[in-house]
Amino acid sequence: MTTETAEKLDFKRILPILVIVLVDLMGLSIIIPLLPLYAARFGSSPLVIGVLQATYPFMQFIGAPILGRLSDRFGRKPILVISQIGTFAGFILLGFSNSLFLLFVSRIIDGLSGANISTAQAAIADSTTEKTRTQGLGLVGAAFGVGFVLGPILAFIVLAATGQNYQAVAFTAAFFSFLSILLTTFWFKETYTEVENPESSRKRRPFSFGAMREALGRPAIGFLLILMFFYQIAFGGYEQLFSLFTLTRLGMDARDTSGLFVLAGLFIIVVQGGLIGRWSKQKGDRWLVLMGLGTLAIGLIGTALTPAVPIPWYEKAKVLESMAGQGEFRVSIQSINIQLPDDSANGWLGIVWLVIASFPAALGGGVLHPAVNSLITKSSDKSEVGGMLGVSAAMYSAANAIAPLFYGALFQWFGGPVPFFVGGFILAIMWLFAPRVVKV
Q1: What single DSSP character describes residue 340?
Q2: Would you say the pTM of this structure is higher than 0.70?
């Protein structure tokens, strides 16, 4: 491989991976703004909503590192298909859910098989060099961003066309999950060449918590894994409780919040699709990590300070009616256990403030994940990249499991702004420590 080739990303090789991630994320992002409201219609409190949001990442914490190790042994393609089938089954069950119990079961199924993204990241690592890896992982993030734009747009369209029918949105997500299975089966080509030497793969230990402890004990990788964990404690709670915050603070329903997700997704596309590769080459991954921590802290604290002024078009009765649903899945309005704002003093201040605060939050969130994972892959042997990204995904998922419980408890006991203040403070602490430890 020439120096010029090594420094240039082979876009044709990674294109199938990016398309599969895009389709997967379209399915996932369709339901993200809905899930807290879905649970609220069954009488859930903020804490119970936090528990529901924690179920998927907790199950993913168990399943993703195991599947990551298996992808090092059997290849990326079969593991990716298995994880996508689980996601499809979870969305189908979500569509038929008429109780809080079934909502939990659907998230358990999806979470246990949820290695889609970590396996795709491993395939990107297989298909790039050290010079192009951050750019490649950034393009995965850009596919995230495109998915987060198109998914909420589709959610908005489906909700408008079906009169706020949450079940229709879940089945739409299942359709995109099924499409991703077809793409992986018939288009994606195996990227992991180590499967050509099965003897070394058989000797490799499967994932265990001992392997996680060993990874955490490595000087170069350990802090990066810890950083991934605490960054996602702060950002994961922000993502998963954001629609509940906008509902109770500004009176925004699922369609309104989907609009904010579209705006954030567009910004993430610009950052991860065009800027992160350039910044990585010019300033390095260490700079990206420090910048991401600082801007995300500013964004979360800014979100916490959002004035409690409902959006101009907010009508409390209409929002309650939309949350109650329709037909056989309709619930009593009296069962909704979420405090909505009054509609006597609506205005633009709250939504304008929140939009401004969302930009640094989206910048930090869009930069940190690919930058940290890039540093992890550069500090790992080629034969263990999938396993290390599996450990990274496990830390990420563990944080995602803890974050909504933590945020949900703070939300219920101290009010909506408090968890976002706490998340911003955690990131500020990490920003102070990171320059002394991250040297790459």
Answers
A1: P
A2: yes
